[in-house]
Amino acid sequence: MSETNTREIGIIMNGVSGRMGYRQHLVRSILAIREQGGIELPDGSRVTVKPILVGRSAQKLAELAAKHGIEDWTTDLDAALADPQWEIYADFLVTKARASAIRKAIAAGKAIYTEKPTAESVEEALELARLARTAGVKTGVVHDKLYLPGLQKLKRLIDSGFFGRILSVRGEFGYWVFEGDWQPAQRPSWNYRTEDGGGIISDMFPHWNYVMENLFGEVKSVYAQAAVHIADRWDENGEPYTATAEDAAYGIFELEGGIVAEINSSWTVRVNRDELVEFQVDGTHGSAVVGLFGAKIQHRNATPKPVWNPDLADAHDYDADWAEVPVNDVFLNGFRQQWEEYLASYVLGTDYAFDLLAGARGVQLAEAGLQSSAEGRKVALPALSLD
Ligand SMILES: NC(=O)C1=CN([C@@H]2O[C@H](COP(=O)(O)OP(=O)(O)OC[C@H]3O[C@@H](n4cnc5c(N)ncnc54)[C@H](OP(=O)(O)O)[C@@H]3O)[C@@H](O)[C@H]2O)C=CC1
Ligand SMILES: O=C1CO[C@H](CO)[C@@H](O)[C@@H]1O
Question: What ipTM does this complex have?
Answer without folding.
Answer: 0.96
